[in-house]
Amino acid sequence: MPSLSLFDPASAALVLGGTAIATLARAGLRNTAATARELASLAAPGFDVAKARSVLAPEVEAIRQDGLLRARPVAVADSELADATAALARHRSVAALIAQHEQHRTRREARRQQALTTLEQAAELGPVFGLVGTLVGLGRLPAGGLDSEGAVMAAVSTAILTTLYGLLVAHLVILPLAGMIERRGRSEEEQRAQLIDWLARQVAPACPPDRIQHNDSKAA
User: Fold this and answer.
1) Residue 65 placed within a domain
2) Are 109 and 188 in contact (CB under 8 A)?
3) 15 and 129 in contact (C-beta within 8 Å)?
4) What's the structural domain count of the chain?
5) Inside any domain, residue 194
6) Is residue 4 part of a domain?
7) Which structural domain range is residue 164 located in?
8) What does the alpha-carbon distance between residue 195 and residue 38 come to, in Å, rounded to a whole number?
9) pLDDT (tens digit, 9 = 90+) per residue, 38-81?
10) How do residues 120-137 score in pLDDT, each as one tens digit?
């Protein structure tokens, strides 16, 4: 009897294509696009708190020396830092700085949750399409029984490999990617929180007393 090959393009296409189409149909185009962006961001360098502090340090020193009246937004590529320093300069308030951070954090978490939910759905659908392939393979068994050895092996191969591919795609590709997004997001939020805490402590002495009190009461 011919040996069973572990690579079958037709079975792989059935599982991968079916999973992708079903995930798109279930999650919707918007969530799928958000997931694609989160996956693409895994290839980019992560947030570097030390680098961000070095960029902000000259402006922080200027604020400590000259006060917030001369403060200006910092020209940085990071949208949160740009918005946060702009809010600080505009309102001369640590509370405004923290509020901008919270707004960006909420948006980031919402995007990550979109991606995680979509990937969880894809992980559920992968084995389902593995089962679909199994049924397709069984349906291809020749009516004459084992008389046609090649047809039997082709049907068995499809039935086995689609189930295998569905499990591998879910547990060795999709769920690990979801874990990477979650771990990277948690690390980024911790580093950003450290940066904002440091920045708030550095500029607080330069804030007008009423703005400091407003921030303290809000934090309390």
Assistant:
1) yes
2) no
3) yes
4) 1
5) yes
6) no
7) 9-219
8) 22
9) 999 999 988 999 999 998 888 888 877 766 666 666 777 888 88
10) 999 999 999 988 888 877
